Amino acid sequence: MSVLAPAPSPPTRRERLRAPGLVVGGLALATLALRLRDPHVAGSWGLCPSAALGFWCPGCGGLRAVNDLTHGDVAAAASSNLLLVVLAPVVVVLLGLWALSRWRGRPVARLRGRAAPVVLVTALAAVAAFTLLRNLPLPLGSWLAP
User: Fold this and answer.
1) What is Dmax (Cα atoms) for the chain?
2) Which of 58, 85, 86, 88 is the most buried (most CB within 10 A)?
3) Is omega for the bond preceding 117 within 30 degrees of 0, making it cis?
């Protein structure tokens, strides 16, 4: 005679929302820190290794852009890091959809088949193009440099 273990109970809503809550909370704390400690002041957040090597990575200017966004200055944020300003609303929507699906207890929608690699390659190509364009000499790339 074998004893069967009881089936595990499904996760509670609180358990399902733990991961999205931690991610959103971490991003909120980082945003608050950038609001309170101005990254426009040289050295306030340390030294950027890629800028020290003489090139602008796709993240260069990202801290200043977030600080500018917390002050409502979208133009200044775009001048610091246009890619971050364009992608920020996309990230907010994706985080919201993730939290909503976890709230409802439904699986998170995933890209299937050929869509996933196409989206990944397109995103990587966009980041590579942004990096290349912002490092071109004047007059082509100067408007994308932080």
Assistant:
1) 81
2) 85
3) no
Nearest to 90 by CA among 80, 79, 98: 98
Tens digit of pLDDT at every position of the chain (146 positions): 566 778 888 889 999 999 999 999 999 999 999 999 999 998 888 888 888 888 889 998 999 999 999 999 999 999 999 999 999 999 999 999 999 999 999 888 787 788 888 999 999 999 999 999 888 887 766 678 88
Could you give phi then psi for residue 46, rounded to 5 degrees? 95, -170
Distance CA 106, CA 131 (A): 37
pTM of the shown model = 0.84
Beta-carbon contacts of residue 12 (< 8 Å; ≥ 6 apart): none
Residue 56: which residues within 8 A CB-CB, separation 6 or more? 50, 131, 134, 135, 144, 145, 146
